[in-house]
Amino acid sequence: MIWASPLAFLLFIPLVGVAAWMIYRSKKSRPTLQFSSVEFAKTLPKTLRVRLRWLPLAFLFASLSCAIIALARPQQADTKVRRNVEGIDIMLTLDISDSMLIEDMAPYENRIEAAKKILTEFVNSRENDRIGLVVFMGEAFTRVPLTLDHQLLIKSISQLKPSRNIKMGTAIGSALATAAGRMRDSTAKTRVVVFATDGESNSGLIDPDTALGIAKGYGLKIYSIGIGQDGDAQLPIESIDAFGRKVKRYQPIHSSVNDDLLGRMASETGGKYQRATDGNALRRVFRDIDALEKTKIDVSQYTKYSELFMPWVTAAVWLAVIALFLGQTLFRRVP
To answer: What pTM was estimated for this model as a whole?
Structure first.
């Protein structure tokens, strides 16, 4: 409950003053009647009518109090908030080739585990956006289409790993074309592709420049990320020995990222290219993307006020009627 005219409560000040003055006056000034002797009357007990002689005055002041409350206009406020969300459609595109197992993304186990952990954090921070997932090795496929079911997406991310059932290699062009195709029917005002890879394009049926032209034609913005350090590295390979135990050995491999290609993918679409050479750097990259692509949320608030003064007016009238009735009947004083 709120009060539309709270200054009306100031009227209680003179009301209390009048009440105090009338109580004081009633003690000092009493009606008199000449009589030969009142000794006999002094021995009589006070009747209930005498004890309640203040009742009409009490009803009158209660009536005036209700009137003041009515003047203060009590109201019930019913507030409704409407959120208009202008979400962003984001397609995460992640390289899951064998080189993503290279262990150079401290403090995480390897490149793909770092990506999985940080992608999950990113998805959790974008609750109002539709997000999908495309993965690629020597070929690309859609793992999760654009969705608001982020729990499903996070579960899919947690299961990512290189697969022997997918063609070996790094098909950057096919991956970008697949992501762009999934964004083709999007009606979102802002459509973003987050493209993360640790290698150079060496496979796939679609040339990266052709795929970039498709993305530009659809009005997509690309944030490209180069994962890991360039140079010679050790690729872990697990096998089972004669006793059924897992054995990890390392195979020399040369790792390099095509900075020029990833840079053009970003610059020609209004996005940004960044390198992430360790786990903390990769987290900063996704925080930058999160800060750059903010979802627009307009909040409109509507308040409906319901007047509640009528019950107080009714109470004031009835209390005044009762005070008048009692003062002129049961508690009438003569003289």
So the answer is: 0.64
